[in-house]
Amino acid sequence: MQTTGIGTRVLNFLVDTIIITIISGLSYHGWNIYVLFYHYPGFNFGWFFFGTLFIYYTIFESLFSRTPGKWVTYSKVVNRQGKRPSFFQVLLRSIARLIIIDMFFIPFLDKTLHDFLSKTEVVEA
User: Fold this and answer.
1) Residues 77-121: pLDDT tens digits?
2) Max Cα-Cα span within the chain
3) Distances, alpha carbon 35 to alpha carbons 38, 39, 40, 67, in Å
4) pTM above 0.90?
5) How confident is the model over 8-48, as pLDDT tens digits?
6) Which of 7, 14, 93, 98 is most buried by its number of CB atoms within 10 A?
7) DSSP one-letter string for 42-62
8) Which domain does 61 fall in, by range?
9) Total domain count, the chain
10) Does some domain include residue 35?
């Protein structure tokens, strides 16, 4: 079980963030059509972004143990025994990603906060 390096993690983050931004941008603009024409309540873009982020990671990591960013870098999420993470672990990972300072724990924990809290690792596939 070979864990991935910081460079791989950054590439995962960039690919996934681009996809999440596109999806959330489309849903934000789609919602604004309803706001304009039907007077629905408006929301900040952040609600769409973080909602999409949570759903995106929860669905992909629970079904495939991978996201498109992890497919690009040939990596996957596993639990500490090297097996597929449980749905609870994936859910905890997705919730912990919503904490803005998640990545700043790398120097202290040698991993991101969402990996530490959910007891998971990102390894080479």
Assistant:
1) 999 999 999 999 999 999 999 999 998 999 999 899 999 999 999
2) 54
3) 6, 5, 4, 32
4) yes
5) 999 999 999 999 999 999 999 999 999 999 999 999 999 99
6) 93
7) P--HHHHHHHHHHHHHHHHHH
8) 6-124
9) 1
10) yes
